Structures are given as C-alpha cells and as structure tokens.
Amino acid sequence: MSRKPLIAGNWKMNGVLIDACNLAAGIAAACRGVSDRDVLLAPPFTVLSEVAHTIGDAPIILAGQNVCWEGKGAFTGEISPVMLRDAGATATLVGHSERRQIFGETDELINRRLKGALDFGLLAILCIGETLYQREKSQTFAVLEEQIRKGLADIAADRMGRVAIAYEPVWAIGTGKTASNDQAQEAHAFIRTLLADLFEKDIAAQTRILYGGSVKPTTIDELMAQPDIDGALVGGAALDVDTFGRIIHFTSS
C-alpha cells in the first residue's frame, strides 16, 4: 500500500518572529510545486500565527510542538488544541524525546495529549525511541513496544488515520549520529508489525512511520529508500532553507 511521504521540520526552541517568518518564506518557496509528499513545520508557539500567515496557501502543514488534552482551563504554561487551531495549526507532535527525557513526560501523559489532539481533529505525530543505554542493553524493541502500547492505549482503530509515528533513537538526536539504514528499517518494520497486532494489517499498512535522528541531506535518500520509512522528523537541519529544501526534495530511487 502506497503511503504519502511526510517530511516534518521541528524548529524546537529556535526562532524569534522575523527569523521564523524568513525561514518559513524560504521553505514555502522550496515547496512550490510539491504534491507527491507532505511537508510539515512545527515552529515555537509564539510565532505560529505569523508563520501561518507567511506560508499562506503553500502546501505546508503547520503543527504545534506539544499540546494539552483540554480545550481550555487552569493549565498554566500549556497550549490547548483549540489554541493551536486558532493559530493556524492542524497537527501536533506529542512525546518528543526531549519532552520525555528533559521534562519527565510519561507514556500515560503522552497518551492523554494524543487523545486530546485527536479529540479536536488534529493530526498527531507520536514520537518514540530508545536511549543509547537501552540500545546497548538490547532493550530497543521492548522500549518501543511499551511506548507504542501505552501511547496508543484506548485509541480506536478508526482514529488511526490521523496518527503518524516518529521513531527517533535518542542517541542519534542532535549528536550527528544517524542510525544505519538497516537499524532504522529494522525498527520501523518492528513498529509496523506491532501496529498490525494492535489494530489490523490495513491500518498498519496505512500508518506513516517517520525516522528522526540527525537527518541530513547526505542521509535522506537512502533512508527514504527503505520500505518501511515513510518520512523524516528533522531537527537542526530544518532551520536552514537550503538544507531542509534538499531533504524535502529527496529521491528514493
């Protein structure tokens, strides 16, 4: 089953207003004429509205970097799915490794965030991945299974059309290291098999699974040639128009 590739740029905590708008304008120009793949940008919350205005009708999905499970309320420091939609976003990340590792977000909390995103009609990208210690202890598959089972707990099969998975080995994020093509494909194939077990084969076949972890122009083509890799979640390389533009325009054959 053919899955439309998704190239996502996570700007993390980078970009004041003028810089964010200039970057967005450059990426929008790089996306001109692109129709055979989806492009997603996740800027900081403070610039979402202006980035939405800047990209206009360019074929770009706008996303939050995180989301609360409630539409409004006494949740100081959070941003609701209603606020994301109001700012022009139609998608969000949940469970990024930095939220897990630095801010202590649990699988149960991430599951609540995912449900909240889906409740309000957002596309949700669930991020999962193992640390270097866990990989060296041969715990990779056990970690991925736990994160997927708990992250997707009580998610109905008919809602999986608005869920993507991003496999981001923590040891490869911001380090310059990239999982080998075989390592990445092995993890993606495991995830797809697990999705078939949790839901059904058709849902597993339709779900996009992205690779994240120091993705670069020099690695994107071979990664995208792997049968179970459907896109990339890009961090630092998404902050440069030319670099991210090359990743958007990958060739997989």
UniProtKB/TrEMBL annotation:
GO molecular function, one term: triose-phosphate isomerase activity
One Gene Ontology cellular component annotation held by this UniProt entry: cytosol
Keyword Phosphoprotein: no
Highest taxon in the source lineage: Bacteria
GO biological process: gluconeogenesis; glyceraldehyde-3-phosphate biosynthetic process; glycerol catabolic process; glycolytic process
PANTHER family: TRIOSEPHOSPHATE ISOMERASE
Protein's name according to its UniProt entry: Triosephosphate isomerase
Record organism: Desulfofustis glycolicus DSM 9705
Source organism phylogeny: Bacteria, Pseudomonadati, Thermodesulfobacteriota, Desulfobulbia, Desulfobulbales
Gene that encodes the chain: tpiA
